[in-house]
């Protein structure tokens, strides 16, 4: 049975975790996987999560199956967080949400759901996009094509080319957009650019799928959801995949959500029944623990405020790291302009160096990043930034 198989390379992002862990160098630097780290290089459990977990442990009274939708309370609260409590689509009962195993689970459910809606739909993703998007949609039998997005030379958006490409997309296709903190480039659409993308979406009639894995990491909860909320006001159908991995620091608990927007409540109900069927055929029902923590936090005003404060600390620290790296590069005599890093948003930016230079940083300096030169900004700290900047200066 297995004799035909050929070994596949390790995942371009997750594979770095093992390489980093096995590196014996004391001064090694991990800029690989997108996880938040504190100044000590540790990924802490948020205090609000600790409190919520204690409360849940004290009150939880069953481990019986939760069902394919997951927790109804979580679904409502996470929908309100994404869309806002007074969103017209919410008030018109056009949105249905399920809990999923992480944002990746939400995307995989969305992929199978799209396949059932339109078996020949093409999904258009930004060039570049998160490395796992392509594999994930292709695994569901969907053709993936790209639209221009990031200009590696000017370190800015190829916005006109993006609009040009989107204005050719068929109404039967799907366009994947990053809500905020574009992974891997850190280049987000401005609100004016969102408005233009939304205008083309309604004109062409294709379905937007918005991936929101970093709500709150860019500028704030509401600011980061601008595109999601505006788009949902304008279109007939939409899919939103969101994640609680980063903003609640619940990475290994695997909690995310998939929301679908119907033309009206009746259509949303029909689509929802298909979504649940898809879930049943993949993993039957989601894990419950992460959702329980999130709903405990979001349903308690004090805990919610504590979470927003902790989220702001993470966001500000990442933004501070951006400027700190740029300053240190200048201090270390780097003449190349890296100021773009300070202006980008979220967990990632491209350094813009060659794969050979990325390999040299890894082999000679124990500095780990994705081959594309995507760096996880959260991995920079006051302790390692000097070494990092010196090493970059050396390989340049
Ligand atoms: C990343 O892009 O590093 C994160 O989203 C983690 C992952 O699963 O790839």
Automatic annotation (TrEMBL):
<dbReference type="InterPro" id="IPR015421">
    <property type="entry name" value="PyrdxlP-dep_Trfase_major"/>
</dbReference>
<dbReference type="GO" id="GO:0005829">
    <property type="term" value="C:cytosol"/>
</dbReference>
<comment type="subunit">
    <text>Homodimer.</text>
</comment>
<dbReference type="GO" id="GO:0033585">
    <property type="term" value="P:L-phenylalanine biosynthetic process from chorismate via phenylpyruvate"/>
</dbReference>
<dbReference type="InterPro" id="IPR015424">
    <property type="entry name" value="PyrdxlP-dep_Trfase"/>
</dbReference>
<keyword id="KW-0808">Transferase</keyword>
<dbReference type="GO" id="GO:0004838">
    <property type="term" value="F:L-tyrosine-2-oxoglutarate transaminase activity"/>
</dbReference>
<keyword id="KW-0663">Pyridoxal phosphate</keyword>
<dbReference type="InterPro" id="IPR004839">
    <property type="entry name" value="Aminotransferase_I/II_large"/>
</dbReference>
<dbReference type="GO" id="GO:0042802">
    <property type="term" value="F:identical protein binding"/>
</dbReference>
<keyword id="KW-0032">Aminotransferase</keyword>
<dbReference type="GO" id="GO:0004069">
    <property type="term" value="F:L-aspartate:2-oxoglutarate aminotransferase activity"/>
</dbReference>
<comment type="similarity">
    <text>Belongs to the class-I pyridoxal-phosphate-dependent aminotransferase family.</text>
</comment>
<protein>
    <recommendedName>
        <fullName>Aminotransferase</fullName>
        <ecNumber>2.6.1.-</ecNumber>
    </recommendedName>
</protein>
<dbReference type="InterPro" id="IPR015422">
    <property type="entry name" value="PyrdxlP-dep_Trfase_small"/>
</dbReference>
<dbReference type="Pfam" id="PF00155">
    <property type="entry name" value="Aminotran_1_2"/>
</dbReference>
<feature type="domain" description="Aminotransferase class I/classII large">
    <location>
        <begin position="27"/>
        <end position="392"/>
    </location>
</feature>
<dbReference type="GO" id="GO:0030170">
    <property type="term" value="F:pyridoxal phosphate binding"/>
</dbReference>
<dbReference type="InterPro" id="IPR000796">
    <property type="entry name" value="Asp_trans"/>
</dbReference>
<dbReference type="InterPro" id="IPR004838">
    <property type="entry name" value="NHTrfase_class1_PyrdxlP-BS"/>
</dbReference>
């Amino acid at each position: 049975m297995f004799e035909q198989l050929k070994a596949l390379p390790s995942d371009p992002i997750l594979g770095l975790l093992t390489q980093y862990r096995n590196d014996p160098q004391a001064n090694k630097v991990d800029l690989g996987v997108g996880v938040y780290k504190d100044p000590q290089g540790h990924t802490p459990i948020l205090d609000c999560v600790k409190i919520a977990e204690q409360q849940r442990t004290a009150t939880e009274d069953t481990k019986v199956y939760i069902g394919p939708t997951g927790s109804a309370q979580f679904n409502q609260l996470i929908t309100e967080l994404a869309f806002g409590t007074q969103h017209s689509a919410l008030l018109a009962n056009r949105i249905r949400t399920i809990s999923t195993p992480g944002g990746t689970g939400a995307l995989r459910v969305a992929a199978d759901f799209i396949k059932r809606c339109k078996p020949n739909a093409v999904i258009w993703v930004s060039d570049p996009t998160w490395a796992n998007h392509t594999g994930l949609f292709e695994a569901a039998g969907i053709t993936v094509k790209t639209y221009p997005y990031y200009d590696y030379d000017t370190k800015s958006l190829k916005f006109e080319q993006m609009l040009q490409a989107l204005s050719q997309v068929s109404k039967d296709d799907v366009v994947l957009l990053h809500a905020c903190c574009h992974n891997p480039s850190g280049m987000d659409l401005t609100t004016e650019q969102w408005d233009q993308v939304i205008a083309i979406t309604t004109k062409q009639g294709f379905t937007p799928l918005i991936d929101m894995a970093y709500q709150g990491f860019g500028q704030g909860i509401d600011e980061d959801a601008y595109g999601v909320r505006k788009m949902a006001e304008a279109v007939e159908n939409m899919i939103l995949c969101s994640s609680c991995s980063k903003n609640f620091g619940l990475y290994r608990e695997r909690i995310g959500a998939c929301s679908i927007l119907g033309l009206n409540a009746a259509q949303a109900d029909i689509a929802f029944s298909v979504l649940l069927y898809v879930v049943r055929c993949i993993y039957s029902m989601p894990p419950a623990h992460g959702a329980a923590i999130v709903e405990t936090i979001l349903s308690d005003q004090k805990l919610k405020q504590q979470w927003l404060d902790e989220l702001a600390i993470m966001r500000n620290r990442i933004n501070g790291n951006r400027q700190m790296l740029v300053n240190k590069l200048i201090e270390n005599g780097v003449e190349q302009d890296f100021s773009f890093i300070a202006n980008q948003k979220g967990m990632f930016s491209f350094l813009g160096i060659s794969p050979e230079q990325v390999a040299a940083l890894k082999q000679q300096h124990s500095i780990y990043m994705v081959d594309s030169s995507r760096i996880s900004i959260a991995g920079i700290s006051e302790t390692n930034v000097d070494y990092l900047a010196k090493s970059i200066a050396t390989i340049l």
